[in-house]
Design a protein that fits this description.
With 233 residues, the protein is of the alpha/beta class. The protein has helices at 40-48, 70-76, 93-99, 111-120, 122-126, 137-149, 167-183, 195-201, 224-230; strands spanning 2-11, 14-24, 29-33, 55-60, 63-64, 78-81, 155-159, 187-191, 204-209, 212-218. The relative contact order is 0.19. Residues 2-233 form the ABC transporter domain.
């Protein structure tokens, strides 16, 4: 599904990512772990095309996306939920959801897809006519996720989905992510600082340090020694 090969990304002359390689398969939830500042968000932005690499390659289903724009990558099947959610606060919940169709080659809204999201996130149905900016942080996160899922992406990129949300909604979002993984038709790459959430949601992990991937494995094999070596501050 997603293959990243030898990706290098710079901010001006500062090297943030150096020779990053990873692959994410359909039906798996992969968590990207690491201390603050090691380049996790930068990697997601590079996969989405928000940042341009100096070297390396990004492919999805064998198609080379390296030189393509973020909108082209969205149409190719990448869904990106950024840190901070990126909703339109003055639009209603329903209007925000409808914006999700804009990235499709056929931007015609699908009533069935809208209803599916309302069932997946019932609070959005309850508040469909409310301005999105009046929702709680957790409800806004559900809205941001639903807006991307409307397009049925092949690859879902999630950057800190639990940031600033209450535990009950955190659990709901975790169940949604695990359910999407079990369907088997979507690859999911999750950046998450809350380790318990990441390990309970994902099936495999990647650890970043010094701008590169330094370890990967099954979540079942993750232990305190790995956490101390690569994640402890």
């Amino acid at each position: 599904m997603l293959v990243v090969e030898d990706l290098a990304v710079y901010y001006e002359e500062s090297c943030i990512l150096s020779q990053v390689s990873l692959d994410v398969a359909p039906g798996r939830v992969s968590c990207l772990l690491g201390r603050n500042g090691v380049g996790k968000t930068t990697l997601l932005k590079a996969i989405m095309g928000v940042l341009k690499p100096r070297r390396g390659k990004v492919t999805l289903d064998g198609a080379d996306l390296t030189a393509r724009s973020p909108s082209d990558r969205a149409r190719a099947g990448i869904g990106y939920v950024p840190q901070g959610r990126g909703i339109f606060p003055y639009l209603t919940v329903r209007e925000n959801l409808l914006m999700g169709f804009e990235a499709k080659s056929d931007a015609t809204p699908s009533p069935a897809a809208l209803e599916e999201m309302m069932e997946m996130f019932p609070i959005l149905k309850k508040f469909h006519a409310r301005a999105a900016g009046t929702l709680s942080g957790g409800q806004q996160q559900q809205l941001s996720l639903a807006r991307v899922l409307l397009r049925k992406p092949k690859l879902l990129l999630l950057d800190e989905p639990t940031e600033g949300i209450q535990p009950s909604i955190m659990q709901e979002i975790g169940e949604v992510i695990k359910g999407l993984g079990k369907k088997g038709d979507m690859a999911i790459l999750l950046v998450e600082q809350f380790l318990d959430f990441a390990l309970s949601t994902a099936s495999e992990y990647f650890i970043m340090d010094n701008g590169g991937i330094v370890r990967r494995g099954s979540v079942a094999e993750f232990d305190d020694e790995i956490a101390r070596e690569f994640l402890a501050v």
